[in-house]
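debug: dumping io for the single-chain case to check the tokenizer round-trip. Nothing else runs in this session.
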Amino acid sequence: MLTEVGFLAAASGDVARAERIFHALARLRPGRAYPQVGLAVAWMNAGRAADAVVLLEKAQATDPEERATLDAWRGFALQLAGRISESRRVLDTLAALEGDAGRLARGLLGLAQEGK
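debug: decoded output
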């Protein structure tokens, strides 16, 4: 529930509230992707894509699926930051994966989704 509230704050442009929520979630759920992703989304919505890239690069995740999620969102942040070739390299690597990260990567690359 708190994650959803944080994303609502990010979507509405309330970066300060989103930051407080996602920083708290990061302390409660270390190593999980979505507190970092939520903060990155808030920053991307605020025109801070370059900051989001750095955050997602530095984010710690030991689980491979969590790392892939962070990297997929980093690919998106790289696009928004105008670093298209870097974005493509990141997303190309992830596009073959199953799950949310692979779907996001394929969508950002304009590739067909599985089963379609």
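debug: round-trip ok. The chain has a mean pLDDT of 94.
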